[in-house]
Amino acid sequence: MSVLVNKNSKVIVQGFTGSEGTFHASQMIEFGTNVVGGVTPGKGGQSHLDRPVFNSVAEAVEKTGADVSIIFVPPAFAADAIMEAANAGIKVIIAITEGIPVKDMIIAKEYISQYDTTLIGPNCPGVITADGAKVGIMPGFIFKKGKIGIVSKSGTLTYEAADQVVKAGMGITTAIGIGGDPIIGTTTKEAVQLLMADDETEGIVMIGEIGGNLEAQAAEWIKEHGTKPVVGFIAGVTAPAGRTMGHAGAIVGGEDDTAEAKKRILRACGVHVVDSPAEIGKKMAEVLGVTA
Fold this sequence. Notes:
single chain; 292 residues; alpha/beta; Rossmann fold; 2 domains; 7-stranded mixed β-sheet; 14 strands
């Protein structure tokens, strides 16, 4: 079993022929992802990376049966790309684009709520199921198949956590990079729920950061409904108050938004919190009783 994407997923790339789309689509194909085509308006009928190019997502879905889309569309047009994908029947939309205007995302999130679709991102590294599919920009060689799921706001910390977990002998089921923008499609809690329900996932790494209350919401749910151990890390302990740090959503708006406050909440809810990202793999191994 897997979460969101697997070897049977039929993936299209929106912004297929651009430099970012081309580079990452080629990496996804090399990983073994079933990329069935891509979309670049005005270039329909062409071939790119030995895959067909379509003018619209609707045409791509009709011709290929695609059910997953990854978006490498410039910020000014990315919200429209998200809505187009939902309207065309795509079930999992992964928006990599950074810098989409908040106003645009408010409209897009409301629009796609009427469809049976799951949005990951924007401003995220994507989703990867080890030995299944890489739909994103993460370095695929790090993710070896195993039993730990990852939910993270941070791209680089996703890779760091995966590397530690793999080296500790546990491996990865699915890693979900939810993105660090103020408005995202799938929350920390929703991603944790997906992994809690996955038969192959035995433990979960939850990586958060300053700003917002997504981690607290997830922790409260874990306290009430969690059935698997969760190791947590919150980035931004040394961040100055009131300043955006890295991600557009990583800004402290109140006393509960700080890293220390979030860590207290997580610990109170039974999450195994580490103070350094270097401790993630070791802590998970300790919690599961795994010896290298």
